[in-house]
Amino acid sequence: MSTLAHTMMTAARSADSGLAGPGELDRYPFGEAPVAERVGAPVWESAEPELGRVGRRTAGSRGRGLHGQLVQQLGQMIVSGDLGADRPLVPEEIGQRFEVSRTVVRESLRVLEAKGLVSARPNVGTRVRPVSDWNLLDPDIIEWRAFGPQRDDQRRELNELRWTIEPLAARLAAGHGRADVQQRMSDMVEIMAHAMGQGDALTYSRADAEFHSLLIQVAGNRMLEHLSGIVSSALQVSGGPVTGCDRPNDASLGHHGRIVDALAAGDGTAAETAMRQLLTVHPEVERVVPAPREH
Question: Is the full-model pTM beyond 0.70?
Fold first, then answer.
């Protein structure tokens, strides 16, 4: 196994560091919030009891510490519909319910506002926005939808987008002759093969995600590259409609290898065909994500 493969295998097995506890955070004394401000506030008690103890939960896929956890918790509650559109979010209530500081609440709401999930306006406060306003291409929102009530629609939409993005990216990438990137992609295939033999799903998925990210980057289209987060998110979502990337086997590895060979040969048609074969859905879900016709 190459040094790169060994390094990636080791990194994948490393456990995330523990989260810092609340420490000396200043907490909201609930009594300080005027009663008028609490009218119509979310009934936090109706949510899962553990949701209120963010300091005791593990971090989200992209968040760390109390701030990342609160973003994750509130985001999931909004996307799942537990906090419906136009629902007021009172910072003091959130601070009390989740036992976090003013700073953590303020920064978390700013992140959610940037994602289009909430809006903050003078004299109105912070409220949940309707689905039509959400940034549905945001990796966090993709993940939250994929594991919430909208899971089937999210996974279907992701696979349909991949059918649009990746075959084209494979064709374009074949014309760029980036030997360094092609070697890196070949390394990812080697890592995937070794990980599959070892039953190491985590390393396999990380190498797979990097393979597809590299492919889009080398396509030479900045707009496609901007959409690479969609592919990465799709690869991190398990269950539902599946493609060749979701079921590690010799056939899947073979398709990845053929893509690399086609890139090295500068054969855009072969690269596109291999990618379509890799993304072909399995028979049991073909009615959910139909394979596009070949041109």
Answer: no
